[in-house]
Structures are given as C-alpha cells and as structure tokens.
Design a protein that fits this description.
Layout: E1 11-23, E2 29-35, E3 44-49, E4 60-70, E5 74-81
Parallel strand pairs: 3-5
Antiparallel strand pairs: 1-2, 1-4, 2-3, 4-5
C-alpha cells in the first residue's frame, strides 16, 4: 500500500465513498473514501466534515480540505468543500 502525500491546505482528494461510519443530527459526517490514484492497490482514508452530509456509498467525491489528527482515530481528511 502506497502512502498518500500529506496535502497542503486546500488540496483536493478524489475518490469513491466506500461506506459511512457516522452521521450526527447536526450533519457532521465521517466516512471511508477509496482514493482514486494510479496505484494497483487503492488506499482507503477517513474523511470528516459537515460538507460530506448526504453522500452515499458508491458516490464519487472531489474533496478540498486539510489533514488533521484525531487523538483516538488518527489521521483524517477534514473536508471543507465537497
């Protein structure tokens, strides 16, 4: 598995929603995204944010945001724009 480079603020990640992990009543969404890259072994990342509300498994996304590190769940991509 190839590690994704850490994008600078405002960088884009393209991928397909694998599954929803958590959705709250105030629209905060946590999901797993299979990243569209050129490697034969695709990588799945965790994406979080209110911008993700309403997405469904199988949907293609073009996310803009920043990397964060949750103290319990680790590295996540915080989507500002979907």
């Amino acid at each position: 598995m190839t590690a994704l480079p850490a994008p600078a603020p405002g960088d884009r990640i393209d991928g397909v929603v694998d599954h929803l992990v958590y959705v709250t009543y105030d629209h905060h969404t946590v999901l797993r995204l299979t990243v569209a890259d050129d490697t034969p072994d695709p990588q799945t990342i965790t994406a979080v944010g209110k911008a993700l509300f309403g997405t469904q498994p199988g949907e293609s996304l073009h996310l803009t945001g920043t990397w964060t590190r949750h103290p319990r769940y680790g590295r996540q991509f915080k989507a500002a724009i979907c």
